[in-house]
Amino acid sequence: MSFNPRYISELKDFLSFPTVSSDSTKKKDIQRCAQWLATHLQKTGLKKVKIFQTRLHPLVYAEYTVSPELPTILFYGHYDVQPAIPLQKWKLEPFSPVVKGDYIYGRGTADDKGQLFIHIKAIEEVLKKTGKLPVNVKCLFEGEEEIGSPNLPDFIRRNKEYLKCDAAVVSDTKMLSMGQPAITYSLRGTLNMEITITGKNKELHSGSYGGMVYSPLQVLCEVVSKLYTEKSRISIPGFYADVENLTINEKKYMAKVGPSDERMLKEAGTDRNWGEEGYSNFEKITVRPAISITTIKGGYQGEGFKNVIPASASIKLNVRLVPNQNPLKIEKLLMNYFTEMVPRGFELKFNTASKAKPVLLSIKSPYIKAASESYKEVFGKSPVFLRSGGTIPVVNMFKDFLKAPTILMGFGLPSDNIHAPNENFHLPTFFKGIQTSISFMKNVSAIKKAENSSSPETLLQEIFNTTN
Amino acid sequence: MSFNPRYISELKDFLSFPTVSSDSTKKKDIQRCAQWLATHLQKTGLKKVKIFQTRLHPLVYAEYTVSPELPTILFYGHYDVQPAIPLQKWKLEPFSPVVKGDYIYGRGTADDKGQLFIHIKAIEEVLKKTGKLPVNVKCLFEGEEEIGSPNLPDFIRRNKEYLKCDAAVVSDTKMLSMGQPAITYSLRGTLNMEITITGKNKELHSGSYGGMVYSPLQVLCEVVSKLYTEKSRISIPGFYADVENLTINEKKYMAKVGPSDERMLKEAGTDRNWGEEGYSNFEKITVRPAISITTIKGGYQGEGFKNVIPASASIKLNVRLVPNQNPLKIEKLLMNYFTEMVPRGFELKFNTASKAKPVLLSIKSPYIKAASESYKEVFGKSPVFLRSGGTIPVVNMFKDFLKAPTILMGFGLPSDNIHAPNENFHLPTFFKGIQTSISFMKNVSAIKKAENSSSPETLLQEIFNTTN
C-alpha cells in the first residue's frame, strides 16, 4: 500500500484552517478553506469545480463525468469543525496538526476533514494511474455540518437535477475497531433546544432578598432534575410513543457484533453505568432516544463570587431521536413540558436548531454490496453492520430530494476523540481508506444502473433474519 | 442645609475609579483610588493619613485626636465596589457617574463610596467652621469588602491598639424609606461556596454517548433541586438547629416598623411570593437563613450549540446565616450534604470564601442614643430599629478584636440598586447624612467615656418589651 507523505502534508494544510462553523469570527477562515479545497479539487483533476456561497458558509462542488451509462456516486463530506474547547485540555494547538506515531492529531482530523480527504486522494490515485475514473463522480463538501446544515436542504432541493446520483457516500462514521470495518445503517436524529427562564425580578442582592425570591436558577434545576425518572427514562409524556422496538433478531445481531457494555464504558472513560434499564449500552446510544444537557449558564460567570440572584438562567439540550421519532413532534413535547413545569411568574424563551430526523437505511442495495466487497479486499474482513448514535442530517436530504440511498462508509475509530480535545485520526486506516474508496469505485462500475431501481427501503428485519 | 456642588463633583471623581475588588485586572485602579482617597483625607485636615498595603488591596487610614478624655469614633467604610455587570443593563457608564434630578447614578454611589464620603464631608465642615472636631476620630476605609475582607481581620487583630476606639460607625445599610431613618441592629452572616462536580468521563459527544452517561450537569441539577423542600425550607439536616426564634414582642415590632410583604415584593420587582412558610417577607430576609444560587456554569459557554456532554459542572452558593448560626458549622453541613447527595463516580471540589458570622447589636448603648438623637435633629424623625438581610463582616471584627460596639447608621434607600445595574444614591439624603454625622460627633462628645463600660450585649428582648 502506498503511504504517500505528501498526502499527510496536504491534509495538514487542510486541517490548519480553523473552520469552526459555530464561531462567527471564523467566517473568513472558512471562506479561505473553501477556496483551498476548490483549488485542491481542481489540481486533482476534477471538473466544474465551484464554490457555492450560502447565507453563511460556502459549499464546494466538483464532478467528473465518464459516461451516462455508468452509475454516478456523490461523495459528501464537511470541512467545518467543532470548536476546539476547552483549549487547555488540548496537548497541541488544535489547528497546528502534528503526527505522532501512527496518528495525526488536530481538530477535524477524523471529523470530517481527514475522512473527506480519503476520497479526494482515491480519485487522485485512480486518475494518475489510469487517466480516468471508472464511474461518474460528484463531490459535495459543506461548511455548516457542525451547526446543523442550515442552508444545505435548500441548496439540495434547488439543485436536485444538478446533484442527481445513484448513491451517495458519506464517510463521517466509525469502524467497529481498528481492522474491523463497519457500514452504518442507522443514525439517530437530533434536536437542539436552548431554553431561557426569566423571572420578573431584576438582579437582586442575595443579602437583601435571599430567602424571599424564587430564583430562575433554582427553578431551572428543579425542572431539569425531573427530566429523567429514577429509572433513567425520560419523563416527558409521550416522548417514547413513536420509538420502534428492535426485533429479537436485530437485537441478537447487535449483541453479537456491537461493542460490549464494558468496552463502551471504557471508551467513555467511566466505570459508572447509567441509562435506561433493560438495554445494553450500545442499544442505549443507538436505538433509544436521549436528552443530554450540553450547557447551563446562569448568574455571575466571572472569577470569585458575586452575591446576586440572577434574573434569568438558560440551558441547552441536545436530544437524540430514534426511528420513528419526529423532531418537530418532540420539539413540541419539550416546549409543552417546560411550559407546564416552570412555575407561574417566569417567562420561557425557546430557541431550537439542528432539527434532523433519525435514519434507517437499506442494507440490501448493490451499492452496499460493492462497499462491503471493497472493505473485504482492503481490510481482509467483511464489514459488520452497525447502528450509530450520531446524526448526519444530509442522509435524509439525499433520500428526500435526490431519492438516492446513502452508504455510510466510516473510517473513524472509537479512540478518535471527535468533538473533544485531542481529536486524532489513525493514519494506516486513512491510507487503507483510500484503497477502499478506489476499490469501491471499481466495484460500483460493474453495477447495472437498473439494479438501483429496486426499493431502497427494504425492511431490515429480513436481513437480520438471514444474518442471524 | 448646605448643598455644596463641590462635594458632588469630588464624589464623582471618587466614583470614577473602577474599584472592582473581585477583578484582578483592576488592581492598579484600586491603588490609584486609595491614593486619591488618602490625598483627599489629607486635604480635609485629617492627620496621620496612611495607606496600608495588604496581600491584595490597600486600606486607607487617617485620624484626628482632640483629647484622651473624649470618646473616640472609628468611621469605617469601603471604597471597593461590585462588578458592573451585566453592562448592557446599565443606562450609563457605571464609572462615569451622572446626576439626574435628585440622584447620582454610578457603581458605588450607595455601596459604599457615597456613604463613606458623608463622614469625610462632615469632618470637613466641622473643621472649616470650628477649627477642630468635638471628638477623637479615626477613619478606616478598606478595598476588599465586596470580596469578603480577606485581609481585614488580620490587619485589625495586629493593630488593635492603634485602632482602639469607643464605638465604630459603619454607613453601609439602608434607611426604611426616604425621610424615615433607621438604625440597623442585626445583620445576617454569610458563606460563599463553590462546588465543582467532576465525572470520571472526559468530554463526550452527545450523539455517540448520550443515553449511557450520567452527566455532571444532570447530577448538579438533581442535587440542587433537593436543596429546598416543597415548603421552601432548606432540606439540609441540622441547618436550622441554631437558629434563634424571634420573641413575640420583637416579631410585633418588626411587623409594625418593617416593610410590608407587598412593599418587599415591589422592591424585588416581582409579584411571586416565595420562601419559608409562616414568615413575613421581611422576616424571611432578616431572621431566617437562606441559600441563594448565584452561579451555575457547565458545558459549552459560547454561542450556538456544541453537542458535548461536559466532564464537570459547578455552582456557586451564597448562604445567609442568622443568629446563632456558625458559618464553620454550616460549611461542614453543606459539604456533608453534597458529599452524601452526589452519586458514586463523581468527584467533588469545594471552595469556600467570605465566611462571616451573623451579628446582633445592643441598641441600648449611649452611642446608639447619640445617633438616634442626631437623626431626629436632621430628619425630624427618630430612627426605627431594623434587622438587615445583608452582611458587614467588619462588625464582628470590631466586636471581637476592638471590643467596640458598632452603630450602623445607613443612608441608603431601598431604590439604590446596590450590586445591580444603575446603582444610585439620593443626593438630598447624602447632604442630610452629612448634617447627621456632624450632629452625631457633637452628641458623642457629651458621652462620658465610663458609660461605655456597660455590657454592649444587652438582650434585645428588653428593648422590644418597652418599645411595644
Task: Please give a structural write-up.
Chain A has helices at residues 5-15, 27-44, 113-130, 152-158, 160-163, 206-209, 216-225, 248-257, 261-268, 281-284, 327-341, 366-379, 394-402, 427-444, 460-467, and strands at 47-52, 59-64, 72-78, 98-100, 103-105, 136-142, 167-170, 182-187, 189-199, 204-205, 290-299, 308-309, 312-321, 346-356, 359-360, 384-387, 406-409, 424-426. In chain A, helix 1 (5-15) packs across helix 3 (113-130). The longest helix of chain A is centred in the N-terminal third of the chain and has 18 residues, at 27-44. In chain A, 34% of the residues lie in helices and 22% in strands. Chain A is globular, with a radius of gyration of 23 Å. The first copy, chain A, is built from 15 helices and 18 strands. Chain A has 2 domains: 5-187 and 358-467, Aminopeptidase (3-Layer(aba) Sandwich), CATH 3.40.630.10; 189-244 and 276-356, Alpha-Beta Plaits, CATH 3.30.70. In chain A, a hairpin with a 2-residue loop joins strand 4 and strand 5. Chain A is of the alpha+beta class and 468 residues long. In chain A, the strands form 4 sheets. In chain A, strands 1, 2, 3, 6, 7, 8, 15, 16 and 17 form a 9-stranded mixed β-sheet that branches. A 4-stranded antiparallel β-sheet of chain A has the order 11-13-9-14, with helices on one face. The interface between A and B is large, with 96 and 96 residues.
